[in-house]
């Protein structure tokens, strides 16, 4: 398993985090409540700045394929990146 793939324990932690804070999620597109948790952590990167981006876990609606992302650091399944040399020199 690579470091981008969610382990079974991480998947359980994501579902527990969502249940605790949100409860049953309703798709904003089709109103369905049946979701799949993606197997891989995503990373949203700015094309403008080429920044490292934000790690995320992604839920996919089983009915319409709408995707919903949650910050993987705040959910607790990803550690923050260490600051780059440039960011460290700015401190």
Short description:
The protein is an alpha+beta fold. It has helices spanning 8-21, 72-75, 85-90; strands spanning 35-37, 42-44, 54-61, 67-71.
Structural notes for this entry:
- The protein has 91 residues and is of the alpha+beta class.
- It has one domain (8-90).
- It has three helices and four strands.
- The protein has helices at residues 8-21, 72-75, 85-90; strands at residues 35-37, 42-44, 54-61, 67-71.
- Strands 1, 2, 3 and 4 form a four-stranded antiparallel β-sheet that branches.
- The longest helix has 14 residues, at 8-21.
- The chain starts with 7 loop residues before the first helix and ends with a helix.
Taken in chain order, the helices and strands follow as HEEEEHH
Number of helices: 3
Percent of residues in helices: 25-40%
Number of domains: 1
> What form results from the Cα inertia axes?
globular
Query: What's the pLDDT, averaged over the residues?
Result: 88
**Main sheet: strands, sense, barrel:** 4 strands, antiparallel
* Number of extended strands: 4
Gyration radius (Cα, Å) is 15 Å
Distance between the termini: 35 Å
**Poorly predicted regions:** none
Which class of secondary structure composition applies to the elements? alpha+beta
How much of the polypeptide forms β-strand, as a percent range? 15-25%
Task: Lay out the secondary structure.
Layout: H1 8-21, E1 35-37, E2 42-44, E3 54-61, E4 67-71, H2 72-75, H3 85-90
Antiparallel strand pairs: 1-3, 2-3, 3-4
């Amino acid at each position: 398993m690579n470091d981008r793939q969610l382990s079974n324990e991480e998947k359980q932690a994501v579902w527990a985090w969502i249940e605790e804070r949100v409860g049953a999620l309703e798709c904003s597109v089709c109103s369905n409540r049946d979701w799949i948790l993606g197997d891989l952590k995503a990373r949203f990167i700015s094309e403008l700045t080429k920044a490292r981006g934000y790690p995320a876990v992604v839920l996919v609606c089983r009915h319409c394929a709408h995707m919903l992302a949650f910050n993987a650091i705040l959910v607790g399944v990803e550690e923050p990146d260490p600051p780059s040399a440039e960011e460290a020199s700015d401190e």
